[in-house]
């Protein structure tokens, strides 16, 4: 099935990518070496940034059913490609560098968001299908097919309505 692109989320995705591009274009001109914990915190900031991108990309692919694996795989591939291009772009910015570690943190953020959204979609889908045709398992097991209850309810002497 060819996915249909939702215009609103497509525009949001383009704007989100522009913000990422803008942030990665800021040169790091500091001459001081940063503390390792500060560097770790800055690198971990990549995960939620690219998780947001994965959300926007997934929502822009609205043509497939919510639990479609193809839709999630395509969103992952597109988001990971953007993360790789972002790291490559940073190699041209003064004071910045291309880092495999940053890319892996980006991919973890992307995968985490898509995994969470997939679980949420499956749970919602199960809840909706359960609400469509509720079946009383006790009645389905004890009554033969086609059996109707009398108009007044269960018959006297069975322990019901006595």
Note down, in words, how this protein is organized.
The chain has 162 residues and is mainly α. The chain has one domain (7-26, 35-132). The chain contains 6 helices and no strands. Helix 3 packs across helix 5. It is elongated. The model has no long low-confidence stretch (mean pLDDT 79).
Weakly predicted, low-confidence segments: none
Instruction: Tally the beta strands.
Output: 0
From the structure provided, what is the oligomeric state, counting identical versus distinct chains? Answer: single chain
Number of domains: 1
Distance between the termini: 59 Å
Question: What do the pLDDT scores average to?
Answer: 79
Beta-strand portion reads under 5%
Biggest sheet character = none
What proportion of the residues is helical, as a percent range?
Answer: 55-70%
Q: What does the overall shape look like?
A: elongated
What is the CA-atom radius of gyration, in angstroms?
26 Å
Helical/strand content category:
mainly alpha
Helix and strand succession?
Answer: HHHHHH
Number of helices: 6
